[in-house]
Task: inverse folding
């Protein structure tokens, strides 16, 4: 569970409901017709703009937005440095067994390519192409939420216009203008809530998580190529740590100090 | 038929009409004058901004938005891998007949260039130039819809201003202000519907489809150049699969497993 | 005459006027004061933002927006292929006379550089620098219209605020609020019309035409360098056709088939 | 004096004042409180966003927006071509005296580096680094005005909200709503005027002038490196003229024809 | 303390409070409910969009926005030039002690890599990777404030809609509409103030400071690599000064003149 996502959406919802309760009767903010226009119109626009497959991917991306990502760059560096040591001691072929046990498909594929003796230029080429298209797929899934954030206030306004026009055209009793206006404005409220409480923050979360995953994969590519080039494990570690924030890096140094002591014995 | 496009536009329209019906008489939302101002003004602006040829291309792009694309990267990879095998067994010239049967002009041209013995650098140059200008043409056709999405709410507001000014300037009876306002607001409603139910989602759909087509063509370029370089079909497959999503890739592996078994016999 | 530009601006204007006529008396939409504020304020902002020279260039760009461009990439390719043939038969110097008869300064200059025996790297360097700065000049002229499209609705709102404040501050008779409001809103209407009927579409048209001209010049650069490199005219044609849309390309093939038949005799 | 800047700001101001005079009493548009909120709030936001040093630079940039720039690319090319001739006749060292008399620090420094026998790659490196950071400094100074254009309408709205809330909360006499509204709207008017009459056009002017200065410096870099490489002055001229607009170029040819006649005698 | 940040936020706040005081009773602008909706909703959206770690980083970035940065490029150049001199006289190893006393981790790490005899290409690679990810982390922290600037006016509007709907739906007494409206508008006011007085200027400040830090680090990378290449200290200084504004550069020349006199003796 991504705690921040849960806390964020609950906090926002709670405060909006609190605001409504303070106005008196919360039921006056509930209107089925408005929900249909905003949610249905927005969904119509999004379905027209994308394919059902993109929508399925976007639903999976939604799961990602609410679960913790396991792209800890620190862990990946530890694994890569230990692979670099093993490759130096026992040769590249020794990595085959370890690769098959990896969770991450991308890292596994990269190591397998190296074990297979693929040309380094081709390894980089294949992995970077995969990364480019991963980025493109992420951006498409995010696009569904961005389009939702763009269309939902528009359909909120459309619903309010429909309500206003209906009320004004049939206006007999000037006293009815207040409640009629209130009813019409509810659709605008729904559109604004959908965009700002749900779609826009989730699109941003997906962007941030995508950057994290891409960073992790960039670390993997650099590490895999360094291992293939037979670089000194200490150099590999130094290179990969440049991808980390200084604070993360310090934690990593403490944890990793024993590992490196071992490595120095071996590499020395 | 692109089912998502049809479903999307029908869903949105249905919900908006439902919203109108719930207000009472749906005829009060129909106003010919408003349609003329919004549709005509938007069309005027779009025609001024583009040429008739661009508009014709945009209409064809509209067809594309509502039909299924046949750019299945998986199929293209299968074809390219089988070509790579044939070229290895029988030489590049053997591809001439197969090329002539291809549906895709781009792929056909690329294979023909290879068969003609064109310099690899020139093959890449020609195909990438074509791809760049394909992208530019797509972006021009999409531009027509993006301009429509920008201009239609503006002409909706212009129509409403014209109505409001006319009503207010001649205001004798304060009771008439309600119905007059309703009439004026209908043009704003039309502008918002045109932009958010039609132009904006279609522009997005064209963008997504354009990305799919460009991806397919990038796969073709890589494949054609690999075939020309006489690369091992297994390597060709590995390289091209990097362009696919992991899920698609797995499907492809299952389907393609026999093909590869054959290929290994041959290439081994 | 660029027919689309003329038709577009007339269509938009006609529909807006029709909308006004349907409200009754069209004279109530005419207000000199409002024209002064919107047109004058916008012009003031644009003059402050640019120099008089840029404004003069923008006026010339306006002429371009309403006249047909003669950058037919097909014609240019025909000329370049015929030059490539002549250069192969009679040497580069033979192009001097033909170059002097060319309408296009850019193409003429490029051929002249080749005839003068300039280093190919320098030819590319000079022509690409010219193209970069052509693009920058186009973008400056377009900027005048984009700034106009940004400032005119703002000055429309400023005029309406001036009118509203004046009316409200002196409000004695509540019945006067309707006509006063109508008068104030006319300035907003003018600002919206200037931006959406004139400035914004013209800026887009200039952008589209600029892309066309740049494409034509890119074709020229490729062609000139191919001629200088003494490439086979058939290869030159193949390379340059990659810049065209497939449909245009087919037309070109039909027209050009005789030329190529001749060329093959020569080159063969 | 940059005449266009002066004319533009006077024209805009005059028409706005004219608009106010036509409403009757111009003093009703003057309200000290509103000036404080818009000007003070905008200044507060800008000071928070930048440092005092950036503000000082922005004030100097303001001077630049209202004075003529002396970056005439034509003059610079004349100087560089004459330097190229002198360097060919008398050697690079002969440029030392002339360089010391140059107004432009950038050109002077470049020539001095060449006279000092600095490595050409390092000369390019140093001059391009300077140009990059010149561009960054320009963009920071411009940013102050762009932030002003963004914040001033927002503080106009904030002032109007403060006025509206104050008026509505204390509303006893419905007749007072008109004048109260007028007073509240004045702050919105001030914000719109500050953004559209001052900040936005000045930011654009600075951008245009910055482009002009950067173009001039790019001409200098190309010229300096050509001189260092000992290129033929005619080639130098040809290369640098590619940076000019065709019209400017023609003027330059006429003026420069004598100079070139001399040069040909020498270079021939 | 970053004086401009403090002065800016105090100035803006003071003027807004002054504006409220002039309307009469300042307590009518204070409403707890509105604060909860705007601040809570915005915080909800930001927490959903980012992780708690990013929020912690954003709070630290807030500290940076209000404290003086110590990235004086002039000081850094002085240090690097003195290191270049020392390295020339006593060899690269002599820098080890001095490096260990440096405050800046980035510079220290770079010098240490050089002292360790790391390959120059790898040194550049490591330092530039660090710089890229520093830039990415800065942009994430800034994103928290940019998201706040985007969401707070939206939640201001949401709060106002909740208030308006509640008031209009229960409207009995038309006289109550004024005060009810005033109450509803307060939430819009809070949203506008949060965005324009706090979030937007702070995001800009962080951007400006980030650019300053990145400039300083770019100077360090150039300097470190020049020292490793054993370049003449005078050349190092000349290269690095290209990163400075001309005015800063002149100050630097005066301060640094003695240093350079010494250096010339040594290097000569």
Result:
């Amino acid at each position: 569970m991504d705690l921040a996502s849960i806390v964020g959406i609950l906090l926002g919802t709670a405060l909006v409901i609190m605001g409504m309760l303070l106005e008196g009767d919360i039921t006056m903010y509930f209107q089925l017709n408005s929900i249909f226009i905003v949610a249905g119109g927005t969904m119509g626009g999004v379905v027209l703009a994308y394919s059902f497959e993109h929508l399925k991917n976007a639903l999976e991306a939604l799961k990602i937005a609410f679960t913790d990502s396991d792209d800890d760059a620190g862990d990946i560096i530890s694994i890569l440095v230990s692979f670099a040591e093993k490759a130096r001691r026992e040769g590249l072929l020794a990595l085959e067994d370890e690769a098959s046990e990896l969770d991450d498909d991308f890292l596994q594929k990269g190591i397998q390519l190296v074990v297979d003796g693929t040309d380094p230029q081709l390894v980089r080429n294949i992995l970077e192409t995969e990364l480019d298209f991963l980025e493109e797929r992420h951006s498409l899934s995010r696009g569904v939420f961005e389009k939702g954030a763009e269309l939902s206030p528009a359909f909120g306004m459309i619903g309010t216009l429909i309500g206003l026009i209906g009320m004004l055209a049939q206006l007999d009793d000037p006293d009815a203008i207040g409640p009629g206006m209130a009813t019409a404005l509810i659709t605008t409220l729904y559109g604004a809530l959908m965009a700002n409480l749900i779609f826009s923050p989730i699109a941003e979360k997906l962007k941030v998580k995508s950057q994290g995953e891409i960073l992790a994969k960039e670390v993997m590519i650099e590490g895999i190529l360094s291992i293939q080039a037979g670089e000194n494990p200490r150099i590999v570690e130094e290179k990969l740590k440049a991808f980390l924030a200084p604070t993360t890096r310090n934690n990593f140094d403490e944890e990793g100090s024993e590992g490196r002591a071992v490595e120095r014995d071996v590499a020395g």
Remarks:
- Residues 75 and 252 of chain B are 9 Å apart (CA to CA).
